[in-house]
Write a structure and sequence with these properties.
It is built from three helices and two strands; from the N terminus they run H-H-E-E-H. It has about 130 residues and is mostly helical. The protein has two domains: about 60 residues; about 40 residues, no CATH class. A two-stranded antiparallel ribbon has the order 1-2. It is rod-shaped and about 160 Å long.
């Protein structure tokens, strides 16, 4: 008697049964590793961008400070500034005098004028022998 032909079943080998899940685990691990690397790169890039912004802000602040200092230097190089600073320190030009307002013993303001018109000799004379 002839037996009818049955469709042949493929026999799975034990190696095939173990290889599929192993390949799936390897592909999953590689995907996780790559996604972790991309996340790490993105985090590092945002950190670098933040540091660049902070550095640019510091540069802008230093440039503003430099321009302020340059304007102060330019202002201090003028003759008017030098003259005002000398007057603040008590220097007078020839022909000028200092005026000081002080309170006298009665509480009323007393005006004292130091003049450089007479020169050094006149000042010594006024100091030792009184005013003219």
């Amino acid at each position: 008697m002839i037996r009818p032909m049955r469709p042949r079943r493929r026999r799975r080998s034990r190696l095939g049964d173990l290889a599929r899940p192993a390949v799936a685990v390897v592909v999953l691990a590689a995907g996780l590793l790559l996604s972790g690397a991309f996340v790490g790169i993105a985090v590092q890039q945002s950190s670098v961008d933040r540091q660049a912004r902070v550095a640019q802000q510091q540069i802008d602040a230093e440039l503003a400070k430099r321009s302020e200092l340059e304007s102060a230097i330019a202002q201090r190089k003028t003759d008017a500034y030098v003259i005002d600073k000398a007057r603040d320190l008590g220097y007078v030009r020839p022909g000028e005098g200092l005026i000081a307002v002080e309170r006298g013993p009665s509480g009323l303001p007393t005006v004292r004028i130091n003049s450089s018109d007479g020169g050094r000799f006149a000042r010594w004379w006024a100091l030792f022998f009184g005013a003219k």
